[in-house]
Amino acid sequence: MTGSLVKLSNAALVDLPGGVSAPTYDRDALTPGIVHIGLGNFHRAHQAWYLHRLMQQGLAQDWAIVGAGVRPYDEAQRLKMAEQDYLTTLIELDPKGTSAEVVGSMIDYVPIVEGNGPLIERMADPAIRIVALTVTEGGYYLDPATKAFDPAHPDMRYDAANLDAPRTAFGAMIAALRCRRDSGAGPFTCQSCDNLPGNGTKLEEVILGLARLADPALADWIAAECSFPNSMVDCIVPATGPRELALVRDFGIDDAVPVTHENFRQWVIEDRFCAGRPSWEEVGATMSDDVHAYEAMKLRILNGGHQVIADPAEILGIETIHDTMAHPLIRGLFRKVALEEMALHVHPVPGMTPEAYVDLIDTRFSNPKIADTVRRVAFDGSSRHTGAVLPVIRDAVASGTPLDGLALSQALWARMCAGTREDGSEIVPNDPVWGDLVQAARAAKDRPQAWLDQRQFYGALADDAGFAAAFAEALARVWAEGTEAAIRAYLD
């Protein structure tokens, strides 16, 4: 089989197997306009795809992507992508049939070097007009409780004192903006593409907060000249493993870093770009002044729903999200919490009510082609629960609406973080602060308040008597009777 595979490269685009679509544009003629930091699967299935679709129409030829990273492990990804001329095979996992296309909107990848000199130099190039990021919800140096910029973080203190050789993407962006100010090259747009409420606003807080620590005059220039558009991004993109590598080989392609994705994408963007932008609306993106409404619907029902179902699935040893949705109790839990507790705090958007969106997410989660893993979805719950579930709980407490299912979701998270499944097998560490979570979860078995006393997550919620009582009752039932019994009691 290996001998018949087409090794992905520019030269091989004319030899791709039948049925696999290829770039129709001249990649050698593309020029860069975007540096994207965080070249994971999601970016390549989402933002890079939208740009590719524009290029297929003969547009945006001067907006090609230069990939970037700031962590040592990013170098392995860079080398793999360089070997195949920065091309990616995207495999769409539609329940009606699987298809593949090769995306060519990325043309380079900055070497990962301590001090980030090459990255700073590339972002300082006047040709770069957007610097975008997908660095995960937990990558923004925000205080977990307040969600405000944390100037005391060691990385932030280091970058403020060492702006010529920073550790972080944010320090590198500020260093590049300093070069552009001094050279007269002008600003670039700072564009967050992460699942973070008010992602552009949060990015602005981090950039300006760090800049003020390092150089207050530079911070003033950035505030006056740069733009930070908010956006909402949505597409379920599994991690790449043996299954995905086998899928791309089934198409006859040798691709070291293929990406699979569902047959759904959404990108809602605030139209605030200080140095121009591609015409993403020509290929299905929505330009809107009300990103927050779309964002709240997606974060609360999809991202929050993911956490509601992933934790009980992990406790019960279910491996994939579609198998989780095939479990009648867990699917019932999702639908009841989403419809009766989450949807109350979500506004409709053009063409979509919260109730219809719950049905859409039910269908997407249940897609058997995706095989998205419970472990991937449950990863970094300390960021994902605090970003997607706890805001709904706060709204429910403030408005006096039902929250028993939301409290149960927190009890199930606490039970999962005890580190063992109901069959006794170990749940291996799955969060940047796993050790702290395990300690709190095990203490909460006998004293539920020990979990809520993680003030960095719960803040004043820990003091709300109604929520604390609902949580304590749910957690006691989970430990005494088991996960399925606790869900059944809620559904009944």
TrEMBL record:
Mannitol dehydrogenase N-terminal domain sequence ranges: 33-281
One Pfam short name: Mannitol_dh
Name of the protein described by the UniProt record: Mannitol dehydrogenase-like protein
SUPFAM superfamilies: 6-phosphogluconate dehydrogenase C-terminal domain-like, NAD(P)-binding Rossmann-fold domains
GO MF entries: oxidoreductase activity, acting on the CH-OH group of donors, NAD or NADP as acceptor
Matching Gene3D superfamilies: N-(1-d-carboxylethyl)-l-norvaline Dehydrogenase, domain 2, NAD(P)-binding Rossmann-like Domain
All copies of domain Mannitol dehydrogenase C-terminal, residue ranges: 290-479
Keyword Oxidoreductase: yes
Coiled coil: none
Key words of the record: Oxidoreductase
InterPro entries hit by this protein: 6-PGluconate_DH-like_C_sf, 6PGD_dom2, Mannitol_DH, Mannitol_DH/Oxidoreductase, Mannitol_DH_C, Mannitol_DH_N, NAD(P)-bd_dom_sf
